[in-house]
Design brief:
This protein has a seven-stranded parallel β-sheet, with helices on both faces. The chain has helices at 2-19, 24-31, 36-43, 58-74, 87-93, 110-120, 134-142, 166-172, 183-191, 204-214, 219-225, 238-250, 267-276, 306-309, 331-334, 350-358, 367-379, 381-397, 401-413; strands at residues 50-55, 79-84, 101-104, 124-128, 147-152, 177-180, 197-199, 229-236, 256-262, 281-283, 297-299, 315-318, 340-342, 361-363. The protein has 417 residues and is α/β, with parallel strands linked by helices. The longest helix is centred in the N-terminal third of the chain and has 18 residues, at 2-19. Helix 6 crosses helix 7. The chain folds into two domains: 2-201 and 400-416, Rossmann fold, CATH 3.40.50; 210-397, Glycogen Phosphorylase B (Rossmann fold, 3-Layer(aba) Sandwich).
């Protein structure tokens, strides 16, 4: 099995180089790994200990971010080496200022794993949520480097829990401790004789709570809202926007206002959305000098401010529920105590399943259902307040994962503090 795995990794490396000639994203994947070892050698100070943190992509980084922030605060002497597998994570966070080095993780060959650990020499390795690379885990185990998984979540259909997954399971057992999100994950790990498991929860709750505490103001959003009832639609796709536009054009009260923040921002997409609305529309890119309160719909054709916009909302619609990958981040809206509405694809996300079960979040499957739900939330103060209490309470009950992880890490890192 080991021989077959290593052969497949080598073949994948070769194939990706060919695909990179025609695919921009794969080109970033390949080109970004060319100078990783040079970057590491020139950036790491041998006089300071290192914590290596690996995230598959941007979502996993956000789960690890609260731990990175606490590590930097509690152990400033440590260097943080942050690696990504995916360009969608690295390209956005390559300038993250709390990491001493940000780079791609070299492909999981035996030689790369040995070389990486020789250069980095981490005191601790932390993997976020998933991505278990056998050669890296094997070398970490051989060098007796404590290895942790944080915000882990496991499902019964994963290979570890099937007879044919024994080889991967063996490498999983090299991890010193698992911090998982739920009891199901703990029981699954226990079923394959992994007992060093703590149900810590999801560190993203701690992250979104800090956004509320930061209380960063956006005066232009406040001017637009002007004390009106405001629906914020975040990370929307065309399928979401089509249904929202129908509601705005035909069902919504004239007293309701809307902010729409598309997931993919293209000139053509923004123009199509704007032209489909039969009301006063203003774009973020065109708002300079405009009297914002005279508009009914505000389209945010920029990135980086959506999490702050939720602070002004009365209700949130989160997009992505009609795509294959599923609904986007609902926690940012939930932490502000907002009723949440989503599309039908949410089964991969525990927090969304929980919120739907608790009735703080409502899943709809078509325009008729969406309009009915939004009308009810707008017209019925009791319903709106109840859903708001549910989402706010759910976030409050799930805080603290970061501190549980830090308490465990402190037993290893204290002597180097």
């Amino acid at each position: 099995m080991r021989f077959l795995y290593n052969l497949l990794i080598l073949m994948a490396t070769f194939v990706l180089k060919g695909v990179a000639l025609f695919n921009p994203k794969i080109k970033l994947f390949v080109e970004g790994r060319k100078h990783v070892f040079d970057t590491l050698k020139s950036s790491i100070k041998n006089s300071n200990p290192v914590v290596w943190i690996h995230a598959a992509s941007l979502g996993e980084f956000e789960q690890g971010r609260p731990v990175i922030e606490e590590l930097k605060k509690e152990y400033p002497n440590y260097q943080i080496v942050l690696t990504f597998f995916s360009p969608s994570g690295y390209e956005i966070r390559k300038d993250y200022n709390l990491a001493d080095v940000v780079c791609y993780l070299p492909m999981d060959t035996i030689s790369n794993a040995k070389k990486f650990l020789k250069v980095v020499q981490p005191a601790v390795a932390i993997f976020i949520k998933y991505e278990f690379w056998p050669n890296y885990l094997n070398q970490l185990h051989r060098k007796q480097i404590p290895t942790f998984l944080i915000s882990g979540i496991f499902r019964e259909n994963q290979s570890f829990f099937k007879p044919q997954g024994f080889w991967m399971c063996k490498h999983l057992k090299t991890i010193q401790h698992f911090f998982v999100q739920d009891n199901v994950s703990k029981e699954l790990l226990n079923s394959i004789n992994i007992d060093k498991v703590t149900i810590a929860g999801d560190t993203r709750f701690d992250r979104v709570q800090k956004l509320v505490e930061a209380n960063e103001k956006l005066p232009f959003v406040n001017d637009f809202k002007n004390d009106a009832y405001l629906l914020v639609a975040g990370s929307t796709w065309p399928e979401d926007e089509e249904q929202l536009v129908t509601y705005i054009n035909t069902k919504a009260s004239a007293k309701e206002k809307f902010i729409i923040a598309p997931h993919n921002i293209t000139k053509e997409g923004i123009l199509k959305l704007k032209n489909s609305l039969k009301t006063e529309v203003v774009l973020y890119s065109e708002m300079e000098g405009k009297q914002m309160d005279t508009y009914r719909v505000f389209i945010v054709d920029t990135i980086g401010i959506l999490s702050k916009i939720y602070a002004y909302a009365s209700v949130a619609y989160i997009g992505g529920g009609y795509t294959k990958s599923g609904v986007h981040n609902t926690l940012e809206a939930a932490t502000y105590g907002l009723p949440i509405v989503i599309g039908p694809n949410f089964k991969k996300f525990k927090e969304v399943q929980d919120l739907v079960a608790l009735k703080g979040c409502v899943s709809v499957t078509n325009t008729t259902e969406l309009s009915a739900v939004l009308e009810t939330i707008y017209q019925d103060d009791v319903v709106r307040l109840e859903k708001s209490k549910i989402t706010r309470k759910y976030v409050a009950q799930n805080l603290g994962a970061t501190q549980k992880i830090m308490n465990s890490l402190s037993t290893i890192l204290t002597h180097e503090k």
